[in-house]
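Quick review question:
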């Protein structure tokens, strides 16, 4: 409990003791008698001890033009009760209101802590080597290219590449998973990780402002700005609703005595009760708290949701569109078959080395697997090479044009190709305008992909640039409903738009990709989820939900958290409105007193807050 909350609790306890003491004093003492003054003083002391800050906020907000808020309603209702002689009830309204505020503060603090514990990644300093010595500076003072020293137990302050040492990194704050990641010379590491056991020297590759930790902290800080539709509606509702009930309370206090010669004090009491009941605290507090708790719960699992609107959207997701490579599959290809054509007379190793020479310029996982499979000392040097997006690579090697790519590339160049029998991804190769053979590389589904997808009660579609046979093989293994294969990069976006037009009304389309080449599709979908986005600027920028690990089971988990959050929000709205409407009618008819009003306001708020806190434990 924070110091602020401890002070509030102390005030509530003192006010409660004074309130209970006042209840033991005679109630029917003569006005302006000594006992009357004592009783008034005790209840007034309890009232001011509990609620002086509420009165001050009401006055301050009125001076700023913000009249109709909960502070104004509580101030008017409690002061009015005091004026008509209901001292105990006036003090009780303020005490119980502050109890509700305390519960709200504790709930928000717990929800914030669930995020801050996970996001306790901001390094306070960095040890940088300058002029032959190591000095301690602020992380944002370190420049790209400088060498930093990270001792065991210290947080990694900046993104970089290890140039000396080896160690295990704890990336739990980034990924939500406690397993250690072993790093050694040449490995890339990300800020926010914790160095566990070895001394590391790292060349900084990004300034602090562009580092992983900075991007994530910015993402979390901005998440509260993107409100859910329900949350925005409640805010607008409160702005209209509060003035209406204040006017209704005034009319309730004035019209019956004037028109029907009723008792003024009786109708004023009803109006004050009406005001206490009408305070929209339960809705204004519990709805944002529910979404904040859901975002915090997701963050503990390494799921960064950029705002309540995306959390709400996940609960309505009915279509999931997946990229294949690196999303549903491991993306770690290996060469499984080499088939040279008889005409050129190349051996398997010669075809592999020739293809590897062309693929060297590409960073695509398939190209990398071919280069890694070849014998590096025997790979010829390409005189020139260019990558053609969606097709393959064109290179000049030993004066001959070498083509390496997919079937569309061969067809586009008018080169014969054989129909492959293997289920993997086939790279075709041509030399000097003639077909030279093919290399098949195989990828495998992620270990938990099938189980994760089976948990999604939605239509599942896979988009890929791979050929249809290989895509359908993966889809069959994972239980994918529909496959759209052999798509160029812009074809994926077009496919997403086509599927978008088919989706049911009031539902959401989710696109899941690796966050780099899938950025346009991530942006086009209702919700974009970037898989395995640790250290990826493109993923953090383009996606609405960022999975800091490569665990596909986080997708159904995020949907479950979203559905639970939405269910709790609905429960709170229905419960709060039902109780308030009922007690409002009873108070207007004179069947509900101030104590019922206190329950309808503070009691409902506390119950709604406690219910909202269930999202934190998701």
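Suggested answer, residue by residue:
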């Amino acid at each position: 409990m924070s110091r602020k909350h401890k002070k509030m609790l102390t005030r509530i306890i003192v006010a409660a003791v004074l309130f209970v003491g006042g209840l033991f004093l005679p109630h029917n003492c003569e006005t302006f008698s000594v006992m009357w003054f004592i009783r008034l003083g005790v209840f007034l002391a309890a009232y001011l001890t509990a609620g002086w800050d509420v009165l001050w906020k009401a006055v301050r907000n009125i001076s700023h033009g913000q009249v109709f808020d909960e502070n104004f309603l509580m101030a008017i209702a409690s002061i009015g009760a005091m004026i008509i002689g209901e001292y105990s009830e006036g003090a009780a309204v303020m005490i119980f209101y502050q109890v509700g505020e305390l519960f709200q503060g504790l709930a928000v603090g717990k929800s914030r802590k669930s995020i801050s514990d996970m996001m306790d990644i901001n390094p306070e300093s960095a040890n940088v080597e300058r002029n032959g010595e190591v000095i301690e500076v602020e992380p944002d003072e370190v420049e790209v290219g400088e060498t930093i020293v990270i001792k065991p137990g210290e947080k990694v302050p900046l993104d970089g590449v290890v140039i000396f040492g080896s160690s295990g990194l704890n990336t739990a704050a980034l990924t939500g998973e406690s397993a250690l990641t072993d790093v050694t010379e040449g490995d890339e590491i990300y800020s926010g990780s914790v160095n566990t056991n070895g001394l590391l020297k790292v060349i900084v590759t990004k300034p602090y402002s562009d580092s992983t930790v900075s991007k994530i902290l910015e993402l979390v800080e901005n998440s509260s700005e993107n409100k859910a539709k329900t949350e925005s509606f409640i805010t607008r509702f409160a702005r209209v609703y509060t003035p209406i009930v204040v006017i209704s309370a005034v009319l309730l206090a004035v019209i019956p005595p004037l028109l029907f010669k009723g008792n003024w004090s009786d109708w004023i009491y009803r109006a004050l009760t009406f005001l206490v009941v009408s305070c929209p605290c339960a809705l204004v507090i519990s709805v944002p708290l529910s979404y904040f708790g859901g975002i915090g719960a997701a963050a503990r699992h390494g799921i960064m949701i950029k705002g309540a609107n995306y959390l709400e959207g996940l609960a309505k997701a009915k279509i999931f569109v997946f990229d294949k490579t690196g999303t549903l599959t491991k993306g770690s290809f290996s060469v499984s078959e080499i088939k040279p054509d008889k005409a050129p007379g190349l051996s398997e190793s010669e075809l592999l080395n020739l293809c590897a020479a062309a693929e060297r310029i590409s960073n695509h996982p398939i190209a990398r697997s071919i280069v890694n499979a070849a014998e590096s000392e025997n790979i010829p040097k390409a005189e020139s090479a260019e990558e053609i997006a969606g097709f393959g690579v064109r290179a000049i090697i030993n004066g001959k044009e070498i083509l390496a790519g997919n079937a569309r590339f061969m067809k586009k160049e008018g080169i014969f190709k054989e129909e492959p029998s293997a289920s993997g991804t086939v790279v075709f190769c041509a030399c000097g305008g003639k077909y030279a053979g093919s290399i098949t590389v195989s990828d495998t589904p992620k270990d938990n992909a099938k189980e994760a997808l089976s948990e999604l009660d939605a239509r599942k579609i896979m988009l890929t640039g791979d050929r249809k046979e290989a895509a359908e093989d993966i889809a069959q293994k994972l239980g994918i409903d529909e496959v759209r294969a052999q798509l160029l990069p812009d074809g994926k976006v077009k496919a997403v738009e086509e599927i978008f037009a088919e989706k049911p009304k009031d539902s959401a389309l989710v696109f899941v990709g690796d966050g780099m080449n899938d950025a346009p599709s991530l942006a086009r979908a209702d919700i974009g989820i970037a898989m395995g986005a640790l250290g990826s600027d493109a993923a953090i920028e383009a996606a609405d939900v960022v999975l800091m690990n490569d665990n596909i089971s986080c997708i159904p988990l995020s949907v479950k958290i979203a559905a639970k959050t939405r269910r709790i929000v609905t429960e709170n709205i229905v419960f709060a409105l039902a109780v308030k409407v009922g007690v409002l009618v009873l108070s207007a008819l004179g069947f509900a007193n101030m104590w019922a009003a206190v329950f309808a306001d503070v009691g409902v708020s506390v119950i709604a807050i406690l219910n909202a806190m269930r999202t934190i434990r998701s």
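Why it works: The chain has four domains: 3-116+224-292+563-617, 126-157+159-205, 303-330+445-548, 334-442. Residues 207 and 379 are 36 Å apart (CA to CA).
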